[in-house]
Specification:
The structure is a homodimer. Helix content of chain A is about 55%, strand content about 10%. Chain A has about 230 residues and is α/β, with parallel strands linked by helices. Chain A folds into two domains: about 150 residues, HAD superfamily/HAD-like (Rossmann fold, 3-Layer(aba) Sandwich), CATH 3.40.50; about 80 residues, DNA polymerase, domain 1. A six-stranded parallel beta sheet of chain A has the order 3-2-1-4-5-6, sandwiched between helices. In chain A, helix 1 packs antiparallel against helix 4 and helix 2 crosses helix 3. The termini of chain A are close together.
């Protein structure tokens, strides 16, 4: 009997890859406009290297970028980048098409809904609140809160516990095979892979029970599973 | 011979007291709307106590407020407060009337202009950049950069050095007698006190050479001083 759905956030409920890429590119352009003396392509190469080395939640990407290029701490240029990044974020952040309708349809079926996501708690909540979809979720579970992230099975077990759900009662929806679908499958959840974002070509190895192109396909899957367990 | 003007930022170039107060009140209202179970007045009392104890640049005012009221870390409510605070900030931040015209008039007289301010470098730059007035300033000098803030004379000396100005060549414009006007006067700058913000009733003790109600009065004072030294 399906009682709940656990969602990944980034690239599952909204277009994280595209949005972050645009925000970073616009931030770099604004820093060049503000006097950072480098070509756009070179600056993006350096920035991408910094992000690769330090991780996406490192707080000083632009500080390091400006330091690498100009050799000094330049708060005018750094702050210009931060403001542009933030403005683009606020402007572009919105759920994938049909997300809100799908969440309504799932709640109408009496399901518990949760988000389980790697990332900083306040940053992940900010996305949900700015998109206006946070009231759909009974729990929002972050790796920062738990102290360990995906693909650790302990993190998914903790998520199920927070939701008061057993794996066999739970559908898991995510975009990454390695960090979302495989661990959820290993724990015994029904796995739905959404083909979105930069990992949509990743080899599946039969870890996903279903693959969907749009979140709205989830409703039909849920109805099938709920009818099956009724019979 | 007057060659430059050093400005304080908060409550001198824009209405910091009012803006921060409105942003905090709206943030608290939004947290109550999001489920924080307390009256508005009680919440503001607790918040003001936290700000008094921890200082205005402490990064966790809302975390502590929510913890004090609900006894737990509640990221939904905290993030709601942060987003509202930020949205209000972006919406309300603008220079006092006549500020841009006055800065243009001062630049037209060949003067160097600088900002010297207590606070976090990126936060103070963010205000200047969002208001669009940062290009007027040859230097923006923050207490975070120097490691010591107002009213320490060393900080003002460092500011003068960054501007390559001598005290007797410099007009200082600020709102606080204790932290702006007195140290500037003690160093030998010409002091202009602007009667704005929550410290406008503060006892002057003759530390200010001039007092003004609006920044535009500065142009006349500069013209007088420049003519005087020419004769």
């Amino acid at each position: 009997m399906i009682r709940g759905v656990l969602f990944d956030l980034d690239d599952t409920l909204y277009n994280s890859s595209e949005f972050v890429e645009i925000a970073r590119r616009e931030a770099v352009k604004s820093m060049i406009d503000a006097g950072l003396d480098i070509s756009f392509e070179e600056a993006m190469n350096i920035l991408n290297k910094i992000i690769q080395d330090k991780g996406s939640n490192y707080g000083k990407h632009f500080d390091d970028l400006v330091k690498a290029i100009s050799g000094r701490y330049d708060p005018k240029i750094i702050t210009t980048g931060i403001i542009t990044y933030h403005n683009v974020k606020v402007a572009l952040l919105r759920p994938y098409p049909h997300t809100i309708k799908t969440l309504i349809d799932l709640k109408a079926r009496g399901l518990k809904l949760g988000v389980i996501t790697d990332g900083l708690t306040i940053k992940q909540w900010e996305k949900l609140i700015r998109m206006g979809i946070h009231p759909f979720f009974d729990e929002v579970i972050t790796s920062e809160e738990f102290g360990l992230g995906k693909p650790h099975l302990e993190f998914f077990k903790y998520g199920l516990k927070r939701m008061n759900l057993k794996p066999e009662e739970t559908i898991y929806v995510g975009d990454r095979v390695d960090k979302d679908i495989k661990p959820a499958k290993d724990l015994g959840m029904t796995t739905v892979r959404i083909l979105k974002g930069k990992y949509k070509e990743m080899e599946d190895n039969n870890y996903s029970d279903y693959t969907i192109n749009s979140i709205q396909e989830l409703v039909k899957i849920v109805d099938e599973l709920m009818n099956k367990t009724k019979i």
